[in-house]
Amino acid sequence: MPLSALQALAVIETSSIARGFVVLDAVVKKAPVTVKVARPVSPGRFLLVFGGDVASTLESIEEARSIAGSDVVDELFLSGVHHALLPAIDRAIVAEPGEAIGIVETSTVSAAILAADAALKATAVAVLRLHLALGVGGKGWFTLAGPLGDVEAALEAVKQTAKPDRLIAVELIARPHAEVRGFLS
Fold first, then answer.
1. pTM above 0.70, yes or no
2. How far apart are alpha carbons 26 and 17 in whole angstroms?
3. Domain segments of the chain as ranges
4. What is the DSSP track for 91-104?
5. How many CA atoms lie within 13 A of 25 on its CB side?
6. How far apart are CA 75 and CA 177, in angstroms?
7. Which of 53, 73, 88, 145 could bond to 13 as cystine, CB 3.0-4.6 Å?
8. CATH 2.40.440.10: does it fit domain 86-184?
9. How much is the average pLDDT of 39-66?
10. Stretch 146-159: mean pLDDT
């Protein structure tokens, strides 16, 4: 199933790389889902992102929880995922920075995906970059662009949606310098 056709998205992060591979096997055996990310990430965790129709994705995330047990670091089941979030996960983002940039940093990938989805659903912003765990200690972070009022509204939606213990930072650059823009996308 192409990523753009997914009706639901699930994320599970485990503290054990070995257990993560076992969870991956169980997830794909349980129901017909499409695996988008399945890899070890720092600091010694395993990240699994998959999706499909709502029922299959829900069935597989329940299986993942059961198999992972106490190794679950964080998880997410997202039905009705915003269509603009999906290309960001696949690293196929095509967007130009707007007049304002929002930057969100979370302690887990699941929290970053949930926050990005909330921002996109709140107002007309674009996700410029979505970084999932690699090289940042298992954190997730993303940048948003759009008119100042829209970015402010999107960041407010992030603050309202994210679990406080998972949200590390929310920043706004109202008019980024031209040299800074390239580093944010």
1. yes
2. 14
3. 3-79, 86-184
4. T-------SEEEEE
5. 7
6. 36
7. 73
8. no
9. 91
10. 95
